[in-house]
Amino acid sequence: MHRYAAMFAASIVALTLCPAGAAQAGLAGPGPGITGNDTGGIIPYSPEVTAIYRQLAADYCASWGRLSRITSVHRRYGEYIGFVCIDKPWMIH
Q1: Which residues are paired to 40 by β-bridges?
Q2: Residue 86 belongs to what H/E stretch?
Q3: SS3 at position 10
Q4: What is the pTM of this model?
Q5: DSSP state for residue 28 in the 8-state scheme
Q6: How far apart are alpha carbons 72 and 46 in whole angstroms?
Q7: Do the Cβ atoms of 22 and 31 come closer than 8 Å?
């Protein structure tokens, strides 16, 4: 009986601490700056990025050897500018 109680207590502790650790490590969602991978990403919107978001997306996708295409622009705080990274048409894989 004590073994089951110890396992139950250990699982409660793990369930309580693991989500908090993930949130503190920045693994619970997008962080500041560009968030994405080789297929695209998002840029947090602010008035400061209005003039440069196309260049930010182009530079990000260029690091993967790809071109960028803006897919959505939501001009409100808390929203994002979405983009995809596309293959260069002249590349053969």
Answers
A1: 37, 84
A2: strand 80-86
A3: helix
A4: 0.64
A5: S
A6: 14
A7: no
Neighbouring C-beta atoms of residue 68, cutoff 10 Å: 21
Residue with tokens 């978001």: 53
- Total residue length of the chain: 93
Closest C-alpha to 64, from 30, 41, 32, 31:
41
Residue 9 structure tokens? 């207590």
Distances (CA, A) of 48 to 19, 36, 75: 33, 20, 11
Tokens of 14: 């793990």
Laid out side by side, the sheet with 40-44 consists of: 35-37, 40-44, 80-86, 67-73
Name the token pair of 65.
Answer: 């050897």
**Are 63 and 24 spatial neighbours (Cβ–Cβ below 8 Å)?**
no
Tens digit of pLDDT for each residue in 3-27?
655 555 555 555 555 554 444 444 5
- CA 17 vs. chain centroid, Å, equals 23
Tokens matching residue 26: 């920045």
